[in-house]
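Dear H.,

Thanks for agreeing to be a second pair of eyes. The structure we're designing against is below in token form, covering all 195 positions.
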């Protein structure tokens, strides 16, 4: 089974083309015009074991908000499409990822009920041109459009780069587990019979 999806989104603020393979090798080809965000998406791809190509053009002359949020929307839609009816998946996943002094916990339920619970203690500042508050906006857009419940919580950390990189890697590792096929699961992994 190949779980590959191509998604496009065009608005007056952004134009995004995205190609996702869930069962990949961690290959990334990311160009959003927001260098730190590109770095985070590459880490997400590598540690999730996905293949991801993103070509995004946005109104960066305003700021990076629309680009970051809209990439989250399209990536979430791609995950939802690639998972199909969710038959045979593991469904739940979690990870704790340290990066130097920072440590972040992620837990995922591919529930069909998209929501984010974000308790990442991080200074509000710029990392290069990236406003640290945009990470939350990305994860809200991603979780709601993917139809997943995502918990992210920082356990420690002082350096914003380290905290956010641990968060993106932890989310990826949790998703890697949750989307993986489980040979013991017959049909939809829910007592309700649907997700």
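And this is the sequence the design step returned. I haven't edited it by hand at all.
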């Amino acid at each position: 089974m190949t779980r590959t999806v191509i998604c496009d989104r065009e608005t007056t603020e952004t134009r995004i083309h995205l190609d996702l393979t869930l069962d990949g090798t961690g290959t990334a080809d990311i160009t959003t015009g927001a260098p730190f965000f590109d770095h985070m998406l590459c880490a997400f791809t590598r540690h999730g074991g996905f293949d991801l190509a993103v070509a995004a053009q946005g109104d960066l002359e305003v700021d990076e908000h629309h680009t970051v949020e809209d990439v989250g929307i399209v990536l979430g839609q791609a995950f939802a499409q690639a998972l199909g009816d969710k038959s045979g998946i593991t469904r739940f996943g979690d990870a704790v990822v340290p990066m130097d002094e920072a440590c972040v916990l992620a837990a995922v339920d591919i529930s069909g009920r998209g929501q984010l619970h974000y308790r990442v203690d991080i200074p509000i500042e710029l990392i290069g041109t990236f406003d640290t508050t945009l990470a939350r906006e990305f994860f809200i857009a991603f979780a709601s459009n993917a139809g997943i419940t995502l918990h992210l919580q920082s356990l420690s950390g002082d350096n914003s780069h380290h905290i956010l990189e641990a968060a993106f890697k932890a989310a990826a590792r949790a998703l890697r587990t949750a989307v993986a096929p489980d040979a013991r699961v017959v049909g939809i992994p829910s007592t309700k019979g649907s997700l």
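Two observations from my side: The chain has a mean pLDDT of 96. The first strand starts at residue 4 and ends at 10.

Warmly,
E.
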